[in-house]
Protein 1
Amino acid sequence: MRRLAAKKQETLGDIDAKTALRLIGSSSDVALVLDRSGLVLDVIVQDAALAALVGAGWKGQRWADLVTVESREKIESILREAVAGAPSRWRQVNHALRGQDDLPLAYSVVRLGNDDVGGDASAASLVAFGRDLRANVQLQRRLVEAQQAMERDYWRFREAETRYRTLFQTAPEAVLIADGQTLKVLEANPAAEGLAGRS
């Protein structure tokens, strides 16, 4: 049992930096290696189209400076939690892109380093695992557009019904609406009721 634990620790300890970066990159759409202050030390992107959006310009910048104003507070909160060693929940932030729509990514941050086993916590770095949310945002946008179209259709129907009711009630000619199968009268306008002797 002791030998097995030693072998396991040895295997995990044998992961070199290159392998660790590949492992980090394969577990997310975008991975940011950060220092404790939120400075981007490295950027790992698997998808070429996404890499074109993210670009190498993120490296060496503060993470909070790469997002929209509304997302900055979330970034500060994520960093505080990660530095404290608290488990990070997924949070959506929007990256500002020049001349394009914002890039929505959901991030979870993990603190790295040997500080968990008595090492120096100040030397620990962070990895932000990012998931591309563009497909979800597009789906939400289509859903909202469909809802708005349904509401517009509903209000058009209501307006048409109001016009019909007004015409039906004020028409000088007698009008009856009957069921096509039973010929039972469903509605009669005031002119028709007057002819039938009903007020």
Note: Strands lie at 30-34, 40-45, 91-95, 103-111, 126-132, 176-178, 185-188.
Protein 2
Amino acid sequence: MFMKSFIVSFCLFIAINIQAQIVSGPMLGHTEFRTTTIWFEVSDTVNKYQLSCWDVKNFRSSMQILESVPTTTLGFSKLIFQIGKLMPGTQYKYVLSVTGTSKQLASGSFKTQELWQWRKDPPTFSFLAGSCIYINNPEFDRPGKPYGQDSTILETMAKEKADFMLWLGDNWYTREIDYYSEWGLFNRPSSDRKKPFFANLLKAMPNYAIWDDHDFGWNDGDKSYPFKETSRKAFQHFWANPSYGENNQAIYTKFTWNDVDVFMLDDRWFRSNDNMADSLNGQINEAKEMFGKQQLEWLKNALLQSSTNKNISFRIIATGSQVLNPVSPWDCFVHFPKEYNELMQFIADNKLNGILFFTGDRHHSEVIKIDRKGSYPLYDVTSSPLTSGSHKFGGAEKNNPFRVAGIDNIQNYSRITLEGSLENRTLKVEFIDGKGNILSSWNTSAKELKN
């Protein structure tokens, strides 16, 4: 009887572990002073999973054990653990297993944000940024030279001692076989995330993301995309942001890291088609929008709220399309004059300090500077591409007079470093290639971005 019972138990243990497979992850998501989020994609919908988490310096009294079951959409199962009761500025470790077994399926570590506000100067820290991840899929890609380039740049990024990663859109590339299928919109990020070169970066630091056209839908996608509700569900399924828009619309959100507020905008959900005229009969076309009334109202209020916080040095507005580039021949916020003028006027009228734009999309990296009468200049930091094709500056952009730093024709990412006292805070942007070489850099300070 004992042997029979043992065999049954052993077979059940084996069956559970055959079913319980990590498809991708762990991925660290939104992380605060006392909370963090850890995401996985798993292969089954049956098992209950257990995450054990503890302070590396205080094992006995800090141990937490959380349980969760997968959430499945269209056959894709995610596992989310939202861990609370943590302490600020503390290093933790975690282990994932199937409940009732001792086999470790995954493990990792994370650090909560430090509580420095009203106590001392903000710590020196850095984060990474980038856009445009194309993973070749030869069976379905267009004929000819592969568009995806060397993906080992993601391994280089994973080795950085950065505090978080800011994904600036086109974080995966949907293509013809995905555009018109709910399953396809989920399968594209799932199939990309399975690649081993993704694993270490997703695990190394918290990840925050916006989208652009290629991870929203088709090229230059706008609000007419018929599967945009499904695309939003896919975005929520594969990222772990603080929130996702309002009223079940869009994916915009905000988070704070030390003395930086990051406003993450959605440039697709409410967007008019790029070919809609900027003006009609000599008048600005009031119907042409990129962000939409709901999102712009949210952004204005969020910026005003941020301006009351004396511990914030920089206010980064992140969006997929470039914002300021006057000579861009492609999609750029400046080509949506109604909303562009409205936002620029709002920033000026309210004397908002520390504003920087961070953007992706363009397949080159650069810093665009726009001077303003009676106030500090505005800058747009574009970081692109990570693994997709690049190009050389050409046409009106070849010698762009508004460019103060930039690189072209190479895959790269950005490392942004903040240091100095709260009164003398500086921000440095470095564009870095796949081997870790610094290609170009630019810096500014909170004092320079002040009215």
Note: The first strand starts at residue 22 and ends at 31.
